[in-house]
Amino acid sequence: MASATQVTELLRAFVTNQDEHFLAVALQVAAHEANRGHVKVAAEMRDLIEKARTPSSPRAKSRAVPLAQPRGELAELLTVQYPQQHLSAMVVGESVTTRLERVLKEQRHHETLLGHGLSARRKLLLVGPPGTGKTLTASVMATELRLPLFVARFDSLITKFMGESASKLRLVFDALKSTRGVYLFDEFDSLGLQRGSQHDVAEMRRTLNMFLQLIEQDSSDSLIVAATNHGAALDSALFRRFDDVIRYDLPDEVQVSLLLRNSLSLLAPASFDYGGLVREGLGLSHSDIVKACADAMKDAVLDGRDFVDAERVRIHLHERAAGQKQLL
Description:
Elements lengths: L3 H12 L3 H17 L3 H15 L4 H5 L15 E4 L12 H15 L1 H6 L7 E5 L6 H12 L3 E4 L1 H4 L6 H15 L3 E4 L16 H16 L5 E6 L7 H4 L4 E4 L5 H12 L10 H7 L4 H17 L7 H18 L1
Helix pairs in contact: 1-2, 2-3, 5-7, 9-10, 12-13, 12-14, 14-15
């Protein structure tokens, strides 16, 4: 029998159309039934889960969306994804949530705004430490607006040959006009370094100047999301080209507690003490906390237990913190 927590997770996944999460929870229920000796029921559940995951299943067909695939030279510059992350699942500060909700509201009513001579926010610069939700934000924007997520490949975009990077950048901005989507420029500091800095080179300066021109001239319906861990290193001229600059921070006590509860809910017993782990999580990023919880749950599964141990979570959080100190 599924626990109340697992039933809640199943309902949450169903309501928010998170099919893969729904199936993951169902698989946990099947494992629990197998451990209780209900082998036949567990096997039947696993068979149903496998059928649901096949591309030919009715459920898979019902959620299919038209695919927009970059072609030709553009295929080397952009990768496309169709994410399934929703804003309700994000754990970020209230100010960040409010500003993202504002962007979504304006985008959903962009035609109404246009009819009054107004433009919806669609050029976002996200600044903050690694692992705090910047890249996830682009996925959430794409999911909520039912748009493809295109990720710029800087390894192909930036070259050493004069004028080639700017030419490739122009191709990407042409794609913004022809295919509406969310276009993510991750690790944006690799492109937008302050002109005149010690890392400034002529080709990068030309590429940055081209980006400044293209983003200012762009009037497409696509969203542009640039994310960086090093806001102070960006050229000051970039900031005024964006409709909104959103700053992300490491999670506070409330957010750490919520991250722990969300991440451990599948295997945490009713008596689980989250409060004792919050202090261990302070100073870590959202990503580090989620990964530490996942490691602790994998330990439980591999050890043949259907519940997670708080001490294992604490150990993994401590290891993540120690790893961050070594990097610093």
